[in-house]
Amino acid sequence: MKFKTPTGTSDFFAPESKEIELLVAGFAKITEKLGYSLLLTPIFEDSELFRRGAGETTDIVTKEMYEFTDRSDRKLTLKPEGTTSAIRAFIEHSYSTPFKCWYLTPAFRYEKPQAGRYRQHHQLGIELLGPDSYFADIEVIYILIKFIESLGLKQFKLLINSMGHRDCRNLYKQKLLDYLTFNEDRLCDDHKLRYKINPLRILDCKKTECISVVVEAPLLIDYLCEDCRSHHESVLNGLDNLGIIYEAAPTLVRGFDYYSRTTFEVQSLALNSSQSAIGGGGRYDNLVASLGGVETAGIGFGIGIERLLLVMKAESIRLNEIPSCDVFIVNLAKEFLPMRLADKLLSSNIKVSYSYEQSSMKSQMRQADKSTAKIALIVGDSELKESEVTIKNLIDSSQYRCPIERVVQDIKKLLTTIESKH
Ligand code: HAM
Fold it and tell me: Sign of dihedral through CA atoms 380, 382, 383, 387?
């Protein structure tokens, strides 16, 4: 039997894995400058956490959770997202506010796989807990846009909406329910049966039947209370002030029940697919309390790494630096000196490679030529007797003997000369 990756999952090798490494490093750099630090949470959590967090009526909970029972009969679920786990950690460890974290997490959703939609994907995200001021919304959206811009992406748009707080949302839900009841026959088969449970979910439905009903539906933005309206306008003013371009998206409710007030999403214009959302998030001012914590406001976003890779490819952006080496050590001696030399070179930030076998000079020189090294360092018994090594410039094939104690100094000089000529 040949084993394969489970449906909807992938292995990542270089150069893609290198791109992921650079994406993560870039994300850490941007978020840490603004005081966010890395949070790592378990890959599985109590199932009830996600039911209460994401919402009982969401697709994620009703159709997509990877739920299992462990040997002690505990109901556990592989995390479908990062937010709920971050909030659980914040409550459990009684962190003070403002709590600012960034994370890299795998996420598991039993979805129908297609380009850009997988059963295991990876998210980079941030969560900011504490401030309910619009400044927090602006900071979080700013980070998302700056990160996407830092990758060189150009073909994307930022969508933004407000879902109001619980009271304005409940008022709106009733209006929407009346409208949907009137148009019940036109909804998709799934939502004909379920729209009464949570009418907001229809706004998120990707089926053409529901989309055509939503076009004429009442809009949440028209039911916002004075406070929510003013919060929303301040967020938009802040974005204008920073020169961040956005588009109003009055039906953007996103796939979780925890959002309140600001919701946002960045969509790629370079992908010809329904899976064009690169990242998205929003405010969730009731989530901490609903998971058993003290009432605390919060906002954050998640970005799909696999989607980013697709979008970068579509925009012909390559982040990967091919792992390179400066010096190839040709080891013909029967001693550990080559490893000691490698150690010295590495300590001076010189990238090193060598053969793992003591094969012939010819074979090792062939490996040196194939590598990206500009210099070969030849260590043979005759050189060792004289406490010397041979330094060979692989660009012009010149070579000379150099005393071992001067090796690092000479190699640095030669690398600078080679780089200045190319
Ligand atoms: P989400 O929109 O479900 O939000 O996921 C965030 C991003 O993950 C999406 O924009 C997309 O790029 C990627 N993604 C989602 N599902 C898949 C999939 N099946 N395959 C590939 N990529 C996928 C959240 O998860 C929220 N926790 C975001 C958030 C953080 N809200 C507040 N804080």
Answer: positive
